[in-house]
Amino acid sequence: MGNFLKDTADDVRTVARGWRWGRRPQVPRSAEAYVPAQRSTVFPSDWSRRRPAVAAREVAQRGALEPLFRSQVRTHVEGLDILDRLEGPVIFAANHASHLDTPLVLLSLPDRWRRRTAVAAAADYFFDTWWRAVGSSLVFNTFPIDRRGGAMATTPGEVLADGWSLVIFPEGTRSRDGWTGTFRMGAAYLAHEHGVPVVPVAHRGTFAAMPRGQGWPSPGRRQLTIRFGEPLRPAEGESVRDFAPRIKDAIAQLLDEDTSTWWEAKRRAAAGRTPDPAGPQVAQWRRVWAQSESPEVERPETGPLRAWRR
Question: How far apart (Å, rounded) are the C-alpha atoms in residues 265 and 9?
Fold first, then answer.
């Protein structure tokens, strides 16, 4: 009887080792035939840059978005005079800390620029469902950019070629603590390939007003500030890899200017002492706490840039 039970247990273990308990194939991965990864196609957005959509967006932005935005936050805008010396299209490259960044940039632009500006948005977030794709395209004129290898219906180069300016966030995603993250080279590449200038844009206060994970701006009409800097162009013979850091440095200088004065920021930039926009390497809670305070704008203007307060 003992031998019978032992033999039975051995048989059960042998069967168990060869049984397909899960859904993984029996054939080893190394022996499987190569199958290219499936590429998904997101919702098209070309329609959002046609005349009917442009007219509808003007009504949506002026009649609904702007009044709602102004009711929740206060804004202080500087540097718009540089746009008087430019002809589109351009690439607006900005730091990214909140979902408030896009309406802040768009609603700060003069009308003639805002009406011809599109926003690069993550395909896997804003274009994963039809209603989010349609809503963001109609109100913000977004078009998808690839973060996960999907096939795009529209590329940034095509949008630039049609005469539209672009808003691009080189970090690729919102900051988790309000400080800047790693800058990618997309904006530098597009400027290099299509011969358009990059206008650096720096803003503060959006993280304090509506940090990542928060669905609505904090009460109290928090203060936001935004600055547009001098346009940047690749120098003759300058590679994309060399041009990209100049964009980040320009945004860092604008952020420094916003926390001090134009003259002080210029002096630090000339001496190579512009504060790192990535922030101090301290505990995470201290980094978040430092960015949770709204910026102050009650100080004398020292730079040559005109200012708008709303």
Answer: 78
Element holding 261 (H helix, E strand): none
Neighbours of 191 (CB within 10 A): 26
Q: Are 165 and 90 in contact (CB under 8 A)?
A: yes
Contact status, residue 240 vs residue 262, Cβ threshold 8 Å:
no
Helix axes 240-259, 186-194, angle to 10 degrees: 120
Please tell me the total number of residues recorded for the chain in this structure: 310
Rounded CA separation 6/23 (Å): 30
Q: Give the pLDDT confidence of 235-294 residue by residue, as tens digits.
A: 999 999 999 999 999 999 999 999 999 999 999 999 999 999 999 999 999 999 999 999
Residue 121: which H helix or E strand, with range? Answer: strand 117-122
Query: Any alpha helices (H) in the chain, and if so which ranges?
Result: 2-18, 51-60, 66-72, 101-108, 111-114, 123-126, 130-140, 156-161, 186-194, 206-209, 240-259, 262-270, 284-290
Which tokens belong to 77? 């805008």
Q: Do 93 and 200 form a contact (C-beta atoms < 8 A)?
A: yes
Cα–Cα distance for residue pair 263/260, rounded to 1 Å: 9
Q: Which pLDDT tens digit goes with each residue over 13-45?
A: 777 666 655 555 666 666 766 666 555 556 678
| pLDDT above 80 for 224 | yes
Rounded Cα–Cα distance for residues 283 and 271 (Å): 29
> What does the DSSP 8-state code read for residue 232?
B
**Which among 145, 162, 139, 189 has a CA at the least distance from the CA of 89?**
162
240-254: b (≥16 Cβ within 10 Å) or e: beebbebbbbbbbbb
Reading across the β-sheet that carries 165-168, which strands appear in turn? 142-145, 117-122, 165-168, 91-94, 198-204, 222-228, 73-78, 307-309
